[in-house]
From TrEMBL:
GO terms for molecular function: L-amino acid transmembrane transporter activity; neutral L-amino acid transmembrane transporter activity. Keywords: Membrane, Transmembrane, Transmembrane helix. This is AAA1 protein. PANTHER family: AMINO ACID TRANSPORTER, ASC-TYPE AMINO ACID TRANSPORTER 1. The chain crosses the membrane at residues 16-39, 51-73, 79-98. The keyword Membrane applies. One of its GO terms (biological process) is D-serine transmembrane transport.
């Protein structure tokens, strides 16, 4: 969010849409690749919707063409889109991967989560939920 706010202050909305559209298409392709990998590695799990593998493979062919064309035609926009994605890596390591965090870090993360929930009206905040019950 911080990177998006900075980009909006510096650039125009059209550029931001280009960055985000590249990121969206990249995520769509990775999702379809995940679908194919799960169909191959875990063929017996329950799937509410099951399609012929020809459909996601065809989608991936077109997706790869569009992604390669985007990288070729606008490498700077695609590079900045990748940088925007990579800004989430430190957040992942601080919030999820690092298991044995000090209590002060956990309190800060909980406080930021509660503040974000209140700000965005996402869910009812459960600040200090164990203590209130």
């Amino acid at each position: 969010c911080l990177a998006t706010l900075i980009i909006m202050l510096v650039g125009d909305t059209y550029t931001l849409i280009n960055y985000v559209s590249f990121i969206n298409y990249l995520c769509y392709g990775v999702t379809i690749i995940g679908l194919i990998v799960l169909r191959w590695k875990k063929p017996k799990i329950l799937r509410p919707i099951k399609v012929n593998l020809l459909i996601p493979i065809t989608y991936l062919v077109f997706w790869a063409f569009l992604l390669i064309f985007s990288l070729y035609s606008e490498p700077v926009v695609c590079g900045i889109g990748l940088i925007i994605i990579l800004t989430g890596v430190p957040v992942f390591f601080l919030g999820i991967y690092w298991r044995n965090k000090p209590k002060c870090v956990n309190r800060i993360i909980e406080s930021l989560t509660c503040w974000g929930q209140k700000l965005c009206f996402v869910v009812y905040p459960q600040c200090g939920g164990a203590e209130e019950e």
